Amino acid sequence: MTIPLLPALARVLSSIDAVRNLRALYGLLAGFCMAGLMLASAQSALLRGDELISALWMGLALAVAFFSVNATGLMLMDQARALPVRDPQDALLDALRCGHRVLLALLACVLLAGMAVAVLAGLLRATHLPAVGAPLLAIVLPAGVLMLGGISFVLVMLVGPLAGPAVWAGGPNAGVLRFLRERLRRDLPETALLMALVYLLVALATAAVSFVIVSGSQLLASLAILGGGVELPARQLLAGVMGLGPRALGASGVPLQGGNLGLAALIGGGVVFALALVLPTLVWLRGCCAVYLALTEPR
Length: 299
Fold this sequence. Notes:
Elements: H1 5-13, H2 22-47, H3 51-80, H4 88-126, H5 133-168, H6 173-186, H7 188-227, H8 234-237, H9 246-251, H10 260-296
């Protein structure tokens, strides 16, 4: 199949409009905030010596983040296909029903890669044989470099980004693996080009969000301390923006000051930090959906 590149590139470039999808923004932000609270609970349990409870909280946090990403992907797939975007609650229920299929597809691909790595490891051990060791190493070394690099490239450019959209579009389990195999055989250069554009968009979105947050937080800290008379150290006022909580702040050598005011500053900064994570993630998910549609529904 020949992919018309110009319409495909235009389709991918349009993924920047993911930031306008308020339902997806709300769903992903809520999921990340809940996962962050669970991670904080896991850290608290670990500090108390409750390793089992900490592991349970950690597992719940990963599950919440995973299904939140899948629910957001479903809403962004609706947007990419010009369909009515489903409600976050409906998207979460659909994600609970289909999220395991993403894991199964990823697991199958990782197992195949693991088998290839195991064969390579066996060949490397065979280089210890006295008669064939040196000639075998001369062959295995370049072949292994190309094989491992190729596996890493395929996982980053094809499997990781497109397994989810293939499920979110409604494809069956076997259809997802068939789609990945066909793209690997026929459209890997085009797929890599489109995904490189997605990663570039994500980098630009991250740079823009970082500039807004860094400049805004510095200006707000100056205004709050100098103009508003907020009696908090600038480092503590900006700690939440950098993703630090009360315990992480204390571990960095800065004790929490200001009582409820200091805690409120950490919570508010944490919301800003979550937004800084969510916006580039929205662009990445929307871009992955656009690449999948460009490969399966070329205009």
